[in-house]
Write a structure and sequence with these properties.
The structure is a single chain. The chain is an alpha+beta fold. The chain has one domain. Helices cover 42% and strands 29% of the residues. Helix 1 packs across helix 2. The radius of gyration is 14 Å and the shape is elongated. The mean pLDDT is 88.
C-alpha cells in the first residue's frame, strides 16, 4: 500500500502504474534497443542500448526513479 498516494484532488493513485505508463515499450531500431520515458509534458527522454537485457534493466531503473519523483512531488503539494 506504499505505492498508493492521494492527489490534491482527493483521488487515490498508484504511483508504480503511473510511472510504468510513462515509459514506452522497448523497440529494436537497427542495432539498438530503445525506449522513451515522459518525465513531464515537455520533457521526453529517449535511451538506446546495444543489448536488450541492458535496455530492460535500465527501463526498470528509470521507472523506479520516476515513481520516487512522483511520490516526492505529491508530498510537497
Amino acid at each position: 500500500m506504499t505505492n498508493i498516494i492521494e492527489t490534491k484532488f482527493g483521488t487515490l493513485v498508484n504511483t508504480s502504474k503511473i510511472a510504468a505508463g510513462s515509459a514506452s515499450s522497448i523497440k529494436k531500431s537497427g542495432a539498438f534497443y530503445s525506449f522513451s520515458i515522459r518525465i513531464s509534458n515537455d520533457d521526453i527522454r529517449e535511451y538506446s542500448f546495444t543489448d536488450r537485457s541492458r535496455a530492460l534493466y535500465m527501463r526498470r531503473i528509470m521507472i523506479g526513479h520516476l515513481e520516487e519523483k512522483i511520490k516526492k512531488e505529491s508530498k510537497s503539494i
